[in-house]
Each structure stands twice: as structure tokens, then as C-alpha cells.
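Researcher: Here's a chain I'd like modeled. Treat it as a single chain, no partners, no ligands.
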Amino acid sequence: MRALAALVALSLLGLATPASGVAADREKWDTRVFAMVEEPGFPAYANVGRNGRLYAGTYTNPQGDSTRSLVREWRADGTLQRTWTVPGQDLSVDHGVQVANADRRGRLVLLEKSKARVMTLSTRTGRFHTWARLPDLPTCDSGETPCSPNAVDAPAIPNYATWGPRGALFVTDYAQAVIWKITRRTQQPKVWFTSAQLDGSDFGTTGIVYRPRQHDFLISQQTTSDGSADPASGKLLQLELRKKGPGPISTLWTSQPTDLPDGFGIGRSGHIYIAMVGLTQQLVEISPTGQELDRFPDVPIAGENGSRIPFDSPSNATFHGTTVLVANQSAVQGDASHHAILRVEVGERGRTPYLPRTATFRAGRTGG
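Model: Modeled as a single isolated chain. C-alpha cells:
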């Protein structure tokens, strides 16, 4: 994540919160290595496909690296099965790819950073297809519309994606403080929601999940610049969905300084398990009403989780059985020996991600 090292200078007082264990087949928070991620490494999200296999991409190629990003597939036992190379990247700029979701046809939905592309990958044919590119927006003080309330001009960085009603895809933008909507009919990205609450300056908007029963989106925001909290604190936001568009946005939970909340998963209990990619290196369990219930590990910063690989910029929590899969991004250290997907027992199964019948892109659309 951009400028993550700047957080080292921030205060770390009051970060520890005790965690409790719950007996199950495995003790709660028991952590094991699911798979190592070889060069170019830097996984940021572990996606569970409709076929039961697991996928992750190279979210950030190392600075100056002119190699293309990879998408990898593992079997449920952690065995590496296949690897695909992402085509058409601009290797002269920061580049990477996130396996953000899957469509109704089983194709992986990819978010490619160098050209801000929304792509699909057919694991059956190995074919990549570009469906949309997120445009760079002017800042709102320019008077132009649509615009981003971010205080500085920044290129679009697609980060996470969720399907919503009527098969629309909603994509967070790490740099531009907006949420994009791509409809099945037009397949053109439109600014659907923008707010100063999504403006974290150097640290932006990350995870997004649509909850059909609540008719809302949960959105993770890494830092705060609107004066509503400590600037180094992030938030879990709740955005209501109304018939004609987005409703009010509110804060469900506020993180501790330097947490940098990233991707998250929702259990059947409604509890939310969210990864702290920042200096604290923890997983946090939050109640449906926004109460912080637990943190793991007990002691922040070191990431000591009991496995042979500590948390090192843990970037997501994707349900797989009664565990969550956590991708170690190692965003600051860049330690290749920590590039791994870890499996953490949480003692409950997750809610099935929303996937409506129309969650797919229309045939005949030409890519670019």
C-alpha cells in the first residue's frame, strides 16, 4: 500500500486488546500455512472460486520490476495447480492484479492496477478479457463532474469488488474516494457514490461486501481525513441502499490508530472478521452492531500467530469452511519468505457471497 511506511512514526500506545480462545475441532485463532506464494509474490486477497479452488494474484509487483503479474490457482489442500500471466499491463508504472470475485459463469473477476482494468479470466480456456477501465477523475474543487473529493489528483486504483442487485458490479477505488458501479447492460463504469468519508489521503477505500438481507454495503476505509476520528484510524462503514441509489453512510466501527482495515469476511453469526494490514498486524472480530469483540494475536506489531510465518501485512479474511484465509502482502518489509496464504480457525462458517443469476458480463462486449 502506498506510503505505508509513513505510519511507523505514529504513536502505538493502547493497541493491545486481549483475545479469547473457543474450543472447536481446532482452537479458535489456530493459524497454519495454507500455501506459499512464490515470486513475484505480494498476494493481497485469497478468493474461493465456485469450483472450490482458491485463487490469488500478484497485487503489487516490486518497484522497478518489469515482469507481468500472475494469477495462481490452488487446490483445496494447498497444492498449486495452475498459473496464468496477466496480459497487456503497463510495466513502466505500478502494476498488479487482484482476484476480486467470480461471475455466474465461473470466470474470475480481476482488477488490474496499471490500466485500472476490470477483467475476467476463464479458468477453463485461460482467456483474459477486459470489460471496463476506470477513468481518472478530477478533484471536486476543480468544479468538474463527476469528481473525487480526494484532495490530490490520483489515478484510479481498483481494489475490491462485490456483486449487487440486478447483477451490477460495485468496485472500490483506493485512490479516488469513490465507489464505481458497472451495470450488466452498459458495462461502462459510473461514479455511483462519493464521499469525504472515503477520502483517506494516502490510504484509501478497501473491502466492500453487499448484504442483501440488510440492503446495504459494508465498506472498509483505512484512514480518516474528514475530522471525524483520529487521522490514523480507519473505519468499517455501512452504506444503505435505496431504490433510486445509495442512501446515508454511517460508521459501524472505528479502528485503532495504524490498523489500516483491509479485506473482510462475514460469518453466519453476522460477525465480521477484518484484517489489519497496518502496523498492528492483527485480525479483528466485530459484532453486527459494531462492537469490537476480539483481536488476534493478543500483542500487536510482531504478528506472532503461532504458525511458522507471522502476520506480515495481513490483507483479507476470506471464509473457507470454518477458517478464514489471510493473504500476507508484506507491503512494507517486502519479505518474500512471508508471502503466503494463512488459514485461521474462527469457529464458524461464513455467509455465501452474494451472486445473483445476472452476475455476469454480457457476451459480445469487446475488450481493450
